[in-house]
Amino acid sequence: MVRALAPAGNTVTPHRPAAAIALLLLLGVVGLSVANPSVAAAGPTLVISSPADGTVVGNGTPVVVDFVVSGFVLVQPGRVGQVVGPTEGHVDVYVDGGYAWMATRVELIVLPLSSGPHTIRLQLVDDVGNALSPDVSPAVRVVATHGPAGGVPTIRIVSPVPAQVTGHDVYVSVEISNFTFVDAHGQPNAPNEGHFELFLAGVLRQDLSRYDTGFMVDLPDGNNTITARLVNNDHTPLNPDVFATVTIFVKGASVSVLYQTLSGGVAVLLAAILVVLIFRRRKAITRITKARTEKP
Amino acid sequence: MNVRTFALLVAMMGLVFLSGGSASDVRAASPPALSILLPVNNAVLGNASPVPVVFTVSNFNLTEPGTGPSSPNAGHVAVFVDGGLTMQVAVDAFRLALASGPHMILLQLVMDNGTALSPDVSQSVSVNVTQGPATGQPGISIAFPMEGAILGTDLYLSYRVSNFVLVPPGRLNVTNEGHIHVIVDGSFYAEVADYQPVHLGLPDGAHNVTLQLVDSLHRPLNPAVSASAHFTVHALVGRVIPVDYTTYFGITNLALAFAIVALMYRKLEA
Fold it and tell me: Could you give the CA distance from residue B212 to residue B222 in angstroms, rounded to a whole number?
């Protein structure tokens, strides 16, 4: 086509130096392309654009993975008449090393993950599932939690108040922030989630994972120190430790001692009878004495 | 090369051509196939999370239902759970929200109009969904009271469970799910299906409490998982009683009674 545009009757002789230069340039470009690793490595790429490495995914929401593929076409594997090629295939998704998902088009991948740290790895594979060569498989680490993704947990004892005088049984009501209560059933620790423990004089009394008030019974008379502590799913304290303390005074209602009460009551009754008898006896003596003196 | 040789050569080339063509026809006519990659058969899927299902097909084009003519090499996948049609998908991965218990997931290639291929192309897997963890040995421990403690009549039993999720009894029997049987002094006391402390009101004396993990059918786990604590109840533990006058009152009562009797006797004499 180019040759057809050349003026008729021109010879190639005058263009020999230019052709040689062009040839040299071409060779140079080819040489550079071979020597330059970045150009040589240009091939399929896969970038996880979200979540960022180390992200804490809060509130129990699934992890949404967004990715970008270049130099590679995502297609449905197993199509009729499909020819396996090095630049088309799909994305295999692994969570903590286990196969978890397949993406055959660029889409958001939603992964419901249990609380705790996880590693998400995406891998480009060809249509029959073989990894590319070189392997293209970026990974990110995330931490899933039912609690908020950020913030410093706090706890405060709302009731009883300090120095409150109570009976032997007392409700303990706490107020927390930046922390979510979950039932502890052996799951891994996760930021800002767990439960709380109630201590009496430093001795653990109850593990609680509801927002209901705790109920402590049979507190001894006198001063009692109640501590409410936020703990992880494995019952270890948070780091740094988050707790609240209140000291109350327990003064029970009258202690019902049946025997003592009965004995006291009988004593009073007997004393009254004795007084009455003495009084009547004295009156009788007086009356007899008076009668004797009036009858000489 | 004479005519005969040439004819033979042409015939051989024709045979080769024909055989090649028929071979390619055979390749083109390879039947569709379906393979479930995830979940694996008999997998236990924990934490009540939706079940991811990943499959691949071959010689079959996945198309959205209602988007094309019905063809034996194109269509979508009908998803059956426990025998019932649950959804239709045209992508290689999807999720199923399943209740706790065993389930059968069956995938079937169907044409665009929903009819199954002939012969049928389907595959199924059995899974077991649990709210508990998929793996791990269940455990239980008593956080309060501590072994050997002396306590008042009222007390709250606090416990810790691991690798086990408490659910109300009466459901299907599922791995790492169940509830707790509370046994006090060898007798059944209560069932517990949440994580709240258990109230005990016990008479004075030595007591033994055992917490046992059981499945939804009230059967102990295999191997059995339980925890026990021994403690003593004393009704007035922790109560401050300044002075106990019972003895003094008793002596006083005797003296008063004696005085009354004596007084009455002397009165009679008088």
Answer: 11
Classified as helix, coil or strand, A276 is: helix
Cβ neighbours of B253 in A, within 8 Å: 263, 266-267, 270
pLDDT digits (tens, 9 = 90+) for A129-165: 999 999 999 999 999 999 999 999 999 999 999 999 9
Q: Which residues of B touch A169 (CB under 8 A)?
A: 154
Q: What is the pLDDT of residue B206?
A: 97
**Reported pTM:** 0.75
CA Rg value for chain A = 44
Interface of A with B in 230-259 (CB under 8 A): 235, 252, 255, 257, 259
Phi/psi at B241 (5° precision): -120, 105
* Chain B residues within 8 A of A61 when measuring between CB atoms: none
Read off the pLDDT of residues A218-251 as tens digits, 9 standing for 90 and up. Answer: 999 999 999 999 999 999 999 999 999 999 999 8
Judged by a CB distance cut-off of 8 A, whether residue A154 touches chain B is: no
Q: Which of the residues A122, A193, A218 would you substitute to probe the B interface, choosing the one with the greatest number of B C-beta atoms within 10 Å?
A: A218
Class of domain A44-144: mainly beta
Shortest CA distance to A265 belongs to which of B109, B252, B32? B252
Contact list, B73 vs chain A (CB under 8 Å) = 80
Is the fold of B31-129 the same as that of B139-233?
Answer: yes
CATH number belonging to the domain at B31-129, selected among 3.40.228.10, 3.30.2290.10, 3.40.50.300, 2.60.40.10: 2.60.40.10
Nearest CA in chain A to B33: A78
ipTM of the predicted structure? 0.75
Question: Is B237 within 8 Å of chain A by CB?
Answer: yes
Q: Which two tokens stand for residue B237?
A: 């533990």
Highest mean pLDDT among A250-264, A265-279, B168-182: B168-182
How many Cβ atoms sit within 10 Å of the Cβ of residue B242?
6
Q: Is A154-250 in the same CATH topology as A44-144? A: yes
* Superfamily of domain A154-250 in the CATH hierarchy: Immunoglobulins (2.60.40.10)
User: What topology does CATH give the domain B139-233?
Assistant: Immunoglobulin-like (2.60.40)
CB within 8 Å: B270 and A114: no
When pLDDT is averaged across residues A261-267 and rounded to a whole number, the result is: 81
Show me where the domains of chain B are located: 31-129, 139-233, 243-270
- Map out the domains of chain A as residue ranges: 2-40, 44-144, 154-250
Strand order in the sheet with B51-58: B33-38, B51-58, B93-96
- Our CA-based measurement puts residue B85 at a distance from the nearest CA of chain A, in whole angstroms, of 22
**Residue whose C-alpha is closest to residue B103's, from B80, B78, B135:** B80
| CB pair distance less than 8 Å for A186 and B56 | no
